[in-house]
Amino acid sequence: MKGPNRELPILYLVVPCYNEEEIIMESAEVMKAKMCELISSGVIGKNSRIMFVNDGSTDDTFALLSDVAKKDDIFIVVSLVGNTGHQNAIWAGIMTAEKADVVVTIDADLQQDINALPKFLESYKNGAEVVYGVRNNRESDGVFKKLSALAYYRFMHLMGSRILENHADYRLISRKVINALKEYNESNLFLRGLIPSLGFPSDIVYFDTKERTGGKTKYTLSKMFKLATDGITSFTIRPLRIISFTGFFTILFGIILSIISIVEWIQGKNVPGYTTLLLVLLFMSGLILLSLGVIGEYLGKIYLETKNRPKYLIDCVICSGNENDD
């Protein structure tokens, strides 16, 4: 099998899309201009492509993308059956880009600066198999988004998750990394943790974020919370160990209180403790429910993994003069 080309690689730009009709045509034009510039300057091969992954959009995103893909062979549209989620959509694009030497994943809103692509490719040519795009700052975010992002990364690090701060899913991966990812079959994907855990030579490219030109972000607070939960439960059992240590110290604390109560009883002391008892009961009940919830998350992940269901189903692949239904 022919090895990947370091000097003139075939690049596939993988772009997950969900209800992006307001900005998708503008983004497609910007992406095409950048790809054509890189091709004409001899940075990437002429067979490089832009692959949009339609993740079950309910607006006109798929219709708009289908139209441009049928007219221009630089575009490919992979349409999934239903909404599988951002991580699965990225995975589907990576696994479908069979002809690529390198894949760069980028969001459809282009808040991640596409002009950083030459730096990604330069790092790849210098030997990096993975290149992470990391934000220079979060000036374009609101106060709540900044604080929630800071809390997110701090909590992830505290729980032992290997994740780069201010790195979303803007990254370059080589064919070698893609082939390695094919060996991973887990249903609960967290690429921000999975790819660093592979251990391939990596580099970082810093970029400035841009304002979204239209529409609204699809990463709601609930989706960010789910992503954080997946990141923790997919890569570390530290929460379970915390529960074990908490249980041990709670029992130890209970033994100490029992000894103190017995001593006071022998001394004839009878101190009313209704409020203390109520607070302890409330605290312990909350602690037990929280612990059961954490354990339930792990059990739920095991349950989903044992089903071994496909992470995505492809409805059709559309490109210039071709439409394949699966």
Can you describe what's shown?
The protein contains 10 helices and 9 strands. The chain folds into 2 domains: 11-144 and 165-216 and 309-325, Spore Coat Polysaccharide Biosynthesis Protein SpsA, Chain A (Alpha-Beta Complex); 238-307. It has helices at 24-40, 61-71, 86-96, 117-125, 143-158, 175-181, 191-198, 221-235, 238-266, 274-307; strands at 11-17, 49-54, 75-80, 102-105, 130-135, 167-174, 202-207, 314-319, 322-325. Strands 7-5-6-4-1-2-3-8-9 form a 9-stranded mixed β-sheet, with helices on both faces. The longest helix has 34 residues, at 274-307. With 326 residues, it is of the alpha/beta class. It is elongated. The two termini are 27 Å apart.
Strand order of the largest sheet: 7-5-6-4-1-2-3-8-9
What amount of the residues lies in strands? Answer: 15-25%
Classification by helices and strands: alpha/beta
Q: Give the topology string: H per helix, E per strand.
A: EHEHEHEHEHEHHEHHHEE
**CATH-defined topology of the largest domain:** Spore Coat Polysaccharide Biosynthesis Protein SpsA, Chain A
What is the molecular shape? elongated
Approximately how much helix is present in the residues?
40-55%
Q: Note the gap between the termini.
A: 27 Å
Largest sheet: number of strands, sense, barrel closure:
9 strands, mixed
What top-tier CATH class of the largest domain fits best? Alpha Beta
